[in-house]
Specification:
It comes from Sutcliffiella rhizosphaerae. By secondary structure, the chain is α/β, with parallel strands linked by helices. 39% of the residues lie in helices and 20% in strands. It is built from eleven helices and twelve strands.
Length: 335
């Protein structure tokens, strides 16, 4: 059985199992505000230790330590299908006591047909943090800027090989595609190699691959050591708070009208009421503004990027449209 069929089967079983489970909806207090009637689960749709898990646990810890809610917040891991198993669990339960953390893969997995659920099947509550990507080459590579790289690729896009940790049509691949497309490169001819075993940096350092598309922190670690140089990062403006990171140029300042934000936000089930949404929106806003969570952001190198539900939804709509168009052009979407 193929991986995609296996994921679909797992999701299907989750949809069928327990579908008559009663939903606890909480209550409205004397001030007309919704309140939960039990503790809250934040689902990390991944194994322990990854970005979703870490973000969820830091959120839950901050809320509990700062007494920002009248109920406890806990984290439950539900890995599988690149997030699809966790999303099916939330959608099936449709319970306001179950939330989940997500990031751009919720676009990719749905658009690639690996899950029946996308961001618009849930309630976006708030975005909390942002991280960014970077494009790095070996220290002695012939390019010093993204502009030089893309100038060559506009003539011969197939002459450059790109590597990333994610699968084709997902994060590392698509952040490079977005920038190449904005620079006028024929994206259908770009050679992308997926290395999910951790060998992407090594492949660039030994000269077998030209450029790595990865996270800023991963690229910066190698560049600080003098082994690589960062041609550009995907943030809308230069990063602050670290002397070296402040030196890394954005694509925009090199004339490339693109950005890619590796956001992480909180979603709820599909049928949340306005009162339920307001309850959580307020908690996560207070969490984002707390000194405790600011320290956590600094510790992990996360950028503050709070968006309320309305802003978050508009941002997701725009990002989804852009990614769908690019995936369509690359042939990842079958109409």
């Amino acid at each position: 059985m193929s991986k995609r069929l296996l994921v679909s089967a797992i999701v299907g079983l989750l949809l069928l199992s327990g579908c008559s489970m009663p939903v606890q909806t909480g209550s409205i207090n004397e001030f007309g505000e919704w309140e939960p009637d039990r503790s809250i689960e934040i689902i990390a749709p991944s194994a322990a230790g990854g970005g979703w898990d870490t973000t969820a646990r830091m959120l839950a810890r901050t809320i509990d330590e700062e007494n920002l809610a009248n109920r406890g917040f806990g984290v439950v891991n539900k890995p599988g299908g690149g997030g699809a198993v966790g999303w099916a669990y939330i959608h099936k339960r449709n319970d306001p006591h179950n939330l989940f953390i997500s990031s751009p893969p919720i676009h990719f997995v749905a658009l690639n047909g690996q899950s029946p659920y996308g961001y618009d099947d849930f309630t976006p509550i708030a975005n909390l943090i942002a991280d960014y990507g970077a494009f790095a080459v070996r220290a002695d590579a012939r390019w010093d800027t993204l502009d030089e790289l893309f100038e060559e690729m506009r003539e011969t896009p197939e002459s450059v090989t790109v590597v990333g940790h994610s699968s084709p049509g997902s994060m590392d691949h698509m952040q490079f595609i977005m920038f190449a497309d904005a620079a006028g490169v024929d994206i259908t001819k770009i050679r992308y190699i997926s290395d999910q075993e951790g060998g992407a940096m090594t492949a660039v350092l030994n000269g077998s691959i030209d450029i790595v598309s990865t996270g800023v922190s991963d690229a910066a670690e190698q560049a600080r050591a003098g082994k690589m140089k960062v041609l550009g990062i995907t943030s809308p403006e230069r990063l602050t708070g670290d002397e070296y990171l402040e030196t890394l140029p954005t694509g925009r300042e090199q004339g490339i009208d693109a950005e890619f934000i590796v956001w992480r936000g909180i979603f709820g089930p599909p049928d949340m009421s306005d009162e339920q949404l307001a309850y959580y929106e307020n908690i996560f806003k207070n969490t984002s503004e707390s000194e405790s969570f600011e320290r956590i952001r600094n510790m992990y190198g996360w950028d503050e990027r709070f968006m309320d539900s309305q802003e978050f939804k508009a941002f997701l709509d725009e990002q989804s449209d852009e990614l769908e168009a690019l995936l369509n052009e690359l042939g990842f979407i079958r109409n």
